[in-house]
Design goal:
The complex is a heterodimer.
Chain A: H1 7-13, H2 26-31, H3 33-53, H4 70-76, H5 79-110, H6 117-129, H7 132-142, H8 149-155, H9 172-197, H10 201-209, H11 214-225, H12 227-242, H13 246-251, H14 263-273, H15 277-307
Helix pairs in contact in A: 3-15, 4-15, 5-9, 5-12, 6-9, 7-9, 9-12, 12-15, 14-15
Chain B: H1 2-17, H2 30-57, H3 61-66, H4 79-86, H5 98-128, H6 134-144, H7 150-162, H8 169-193, H9 197-205, H10 210-221, H11 223-239, H12 242-247, H13 255-263, H14 272-293, H15 295-304
Helix pairs in contact in B: 1-15, 2-14, 4-14, 5-8, 5-11, 5-13, 6-8, 8-11, 11-14, 11-15, 13-14
C-alpha cells in the first residue's frame, strides 16, 4: 500500500537493528494463515503426495515401496478403467456439444425481447440449484423401464417403443446425459445470456443495414464475437465432466454391469472399497493430468493472449 | 478470471440493461411461434422431473403400479412424505431422512459461518493489505479450485486422522471450509478491491488498524456480497455428496448420502412414492433458496462459475 508505514516501525528501523520484514503488515499475514495453509498443505501438498504415492504399491495403507510405473501399467490394462474412460469420452463429447447448443439457443431465444423472460429463465436455471443426487434419482424414476416414459408411450399404443437407458448397457450413458444436461445447461444459458447482453446494439443495426438475416448474424457475427464466453463455458463444462461422480452413483450405480462406470468412481472405489490405494492414486493422477491438458491451453488463451495486447 | 468477473457483473446487470436485439414485428409472426414454441418445449423438459416427482410423491403405491407416471394422482395422500421423513429405511435403520436432515443442518451452519468468515478476511487482506507473496498464494488457491477433488481426498483423510477429526462432523466442516475457500476468497477479494481507496486511506490516516477497518468499515458496507456468499455456500454444502460419503460415518451422514442409501437400497420392496418424497425433501432447501433469492443466486453462480 502506498500509505506510510507505522511511525513506530520506522523509528525502530532507524535504530541499530532493522526489524525483520516478517513483522511488517503482521495482522494481514496472520489473517492469511488459513489461506496459506490451504494453498500449501492441501492443494500443493496433497496433490504432490498423491502423485508421489501413485508410484508405490500401497494397498490398504500408504507405503513407501516404490515400484515405478507399475500402477499405471496395471491401470491401463484394467478393463474397468478403459470402459470408464470410453464412457467419459462419450458423455463428455455429447455433453459439451449439447450443453453449448442448448445453452446458446436458449440464451438467444431469451434475448429476442420476449415476454415472460424472467419466468423462462427461472425455469431453465432451477435444476442447477439441485444436487446431482436429487437429479440422478429423479431421472432414474422417469426413465424407469417398468413405470417411466417407456411404459407411458407403450400405453399410448406404440407397443414396440423401447427407451430403457438404465437397463440397456449400449445407451446407458445417454440416460446419464439427459440428466446431466438437465442439471447443468441452465448455468451455461445464464453465462451466454450475459455475453449476448454485452454485445452492442449497433452490431445488430449494422447487420440489418447489410441485409443479413437473424440466424446468419448469430452464426457469422455474434458467435465469433463471443469467443471468450464460449471458452469460459467450455472450461466450466469440461471441469464438470471430469468430476462426474454423484450423478452416476445416484442414477445407475455404474451399472448395468460396468457399462456406466466413470474415472472419478473408479478412483473412489479403489481407494475406499477395494483397498488398493496405489491404483486409486494412479487413477486420480491421470484425472489430474487430464485437467492440466484442458487448463493449459485455456490459461494460454485467457492470460497469454492478453499480454500480447 | 477477469473475464468471469465481467460476466458476473454483466449477469447482475441484466435487468438494468434490459433485452436487446431487433424488436419482433408481429405477435403471431412465424418467428414468434417458433421462438415461443422452442422455449415452451424446452421448458417442459426442464419442468418435467419436478412435476413427476411431486405427483409421484402424492400417489399411493397401488396407483403407481397401475402405471402412468405423468398422470395426476387420483387420490392425494401425504403418507409417503411422512414415511420418507420418519420411517424410511437404510439397511436395518428405519428412522427416515430426518436424521440426515439434522446432520446436514449441523454440518451446514458451522461450515457456512466458518468458510465465509475465513474467506472474507482473506479477501480483505488480499485486496487492501497485500504483502510479499500474497498474490502467489492466491494464484495457487485459484488453480487449486480446478484440481479434481479425487487427487486430494486421501491426503485429507490422513490429515483429519492426525488431528482426530476423521468421521466427525467438524472434520467435514473443515473440508468444506478448505474447498469453499478459492471461490469465496475470489468473490470477497474482487468486492473489496472495488471499494474506493480513499475510504481505506482515510481510515488508515485516522489510525485504524487491520481488524478495526475490517469490522467497522468493510463489514457493514459489504452486506450484499455476504448474502451472495451465503447463498453460494448453503446450496453448495447442502448438495455435497462426495465429501459427505468419504469423511463421515453412517451416524453422521448428511442428507444427500442418506437419501442415496434409502433410494438405492437393494433390500425390501421399492416404494417409489416414498423415494420421490425423500428426493423432494432433500431438494427442498436449495430450491427454496433459489426461488427466494432470485437475482442474487444468479450473481452467486456467476461468481461460482470459476469453481466449475
Amino acid at each position: 500500500m502506498s500509505v506510510v508505514d507505522d511511525p513506530a516501525t520506522a523509528s525502530v528501523a532507524s535504530g541499530a537493528k532493522r526489524p525483520s520484514r516478517l513483522f511488517k503488515n503482521l495482522s494481514a499475514k496472520i489473517a492469511s494463515i488459513p489461506m496459506i495453509l490451504t494453498a500449501l498443505c492441501v492443494f500443493v501438498g496433497g496433490t504432490t503426495w498423491t502423485v508421489v504415492y501413485s508410484f508405490t504399491n500401497s494397498r490398504m495403507l500408504p507405503r513407501e515401496n516404490f515400484v515405478g510405473l507399475d500402477q499405471y501399467e496395471r491401470l491401463w490394462g484394467t478393463d474397468r478403467w478403459i470402459i470408464s474412460i470410453k464412457n467419459l469420452a462419450v458423455y463428455g463429447v455429447c455433453s459439451m456439444i449439447l450443453t453449448l447448443l442448448i445453452g446458446f439457443t436458449l440464451a438467444a431465444c431469451l434475448d429476442r425481447k420476449i415476454r415472460f423472460e424472467s419466468a423462462f429463465r427461472t425455469i431453465f436455471l432451477y435444476p442447477f440449484a439441485l444436487s446431482f443426487v436429487v437429479t440422478g434419482l429423479a431421472w432414474q424414476w422417469i426413465l424407469n423401464p417398468d413405470f417411466g416414459i417407456q411404459n407411458v408411450v407403450r400405453s399410448w399404443g406404440w407397443e414396440s417403443f423401447a427407451f430403457d437407458p438404465l437397463n440397456n448397457p449400449d445407451i446407458v450413458m445417454f440416460g446419464l446425459l439427459i440428466a446431466g444436461i438437465w442439471q447443468g445447461s441452465g448455468l451455461i444459458m445464464c453465462i451466454m445470456l450475459a455475453g449476448l447482453r454485452g454485445i452492442d446494439d449497433d452490431i445488430w443495426k449494422a447487420a440489418k443495414v447489410d441485409g443479413i438475416g437473424t440466424i446468419k448474424t448469430y452464426i457469422v457475427v455474434i458467435i465469433p464475437m463471443m469467443r471468450p464466453v464460449f471458452i469460459t463455458s467450455l472450461v466450466l463444462i469440461a471441469s464438470g465432466i471430469i468430476k462426474l461422480y454423484d450423478l452416476v452413483v445416484a442414477q445407475t450405480g455404474g451399472g448395468p454391469g460396468l457399462s456406466s462406470e466413470v474415472p472419478a468412481k473408479y478412483v473412489i472405489e479403489y481407494m475406499f472399497r477395494a483397498q488398493n490405494l496405489g491404483q486409486g492414486f494412479a487413477a486420480s493422477t491421470m484425472m489430474l493430468c487430464s485437467v492440466v491438458v484442458i487448463l493449459i491451453p485455456w490459461a494460454y488463451l485467457e492470460f497469454g493472449g492478453k499480454k500480447r495486447g | 478470471m477477469a473475464n468471469v468477473d465481467q460476466l458476473g457483473a454483466a449477469v447482475a446487470a441484466n435487468t438494468v440493461i434490459g433485452p436487446r436485439g431487433p424488436k419482433p414485428r408481429k405477435r403471431f409472426s412465424r418467428n414468434n411461434i417458433f421462438l415461443y414454441g422452442t422455449l415452451i418445449v424446452v421448458g417442459m423438459y426442464y419442468l418435467l422431473p419436478l412435476y413427476v416427482m411431486i405427483i409421484t410423491s402424492l400417489k399411493g403405491m397401488p396407483e403407481i403400479r397401475l402405471g402412468n407416471v405423468f398422470g395426476p394422482p387420483l387420490e392425494v395422500t401425504f403418507e409417503p412424505w411422512v414415511k420418507a421423513w420418519a420411517e424410511a429405511c437404510t439397511g436395518l435403520d428405519c428412522t427416515g431422512l430426518s436424521k440426515g436432515f439434522w446432520n446436514s443442518v449441523q454440518i451446514l451452519i458451522p461450515s457456512v459461518v466458518l468458510s465465509i468468515a475465513v474467506a472474507s478476511v482473506n479477501g480483505y487482506a488480499l485486496s487492501l493489505w497485500k504483502f510479499k507473496g500474497s498474490e502467489v498464494f492466491f494464484t495457487i488457491l485459484i488453480i487449486g479450485a480446478f484440481i479434481p477433488y479425487q487427487t486430494m481426498l486421501y491426503p485429507i483423510v490422513i490429515m483429519l486422522r492426525e488431528i482426530g477429526l476423521m468421521g466427525d462432523l467438524w472434520g467435514l466442516v473443515l473440508v468444506h471450509t478448505v474447498f469453499g475457500m478459492p471461490i469465496l476468497t475470489l468473490l470477497f477479494r474482487n468486492y473489496f478491491a472495488s471499494v474506493p481507496e480513499e475510504l481505506f486511506k482515510a481510515a488508515r490516516v485516522d489510525g485504524a488498524r487491520f481488524w478495526q477497518i475490517y469490522f467497522q468499515i468493510m463489514l457493514p458496507m459489504s452486506l450484499p456480497i455476504f448474502v451472495v456468499a451465503i447463498i453460494l455456500q448453503v446450496t453448495g454444502i447442502w448438495n455435497d455428496f462426495l465429501f459427505g460419503v468419504i469423511y463421515t460415518k453412517p451416524e453422521t451422514y448428511p442428507m444427500t448420502v442418506q437419501l442415496n442409501n434409502i433410494v438405492n437400497s437393494v433390500q425390501g420392496v421399492k416404494e417409489y412414492n416414498v423415494n420421490m418424497a425423500a428426493t423432494l425433501l432433500t431438494g427442498l432447501v436449495p430450491l427454496v433458496i433459489y426461488f427466494a433469492s432470485g437475482k442474487l443466486f444468479v450473481r452467486g453462480i456467476a461468481a461460482g462459475a470459476v469453481k466449475g
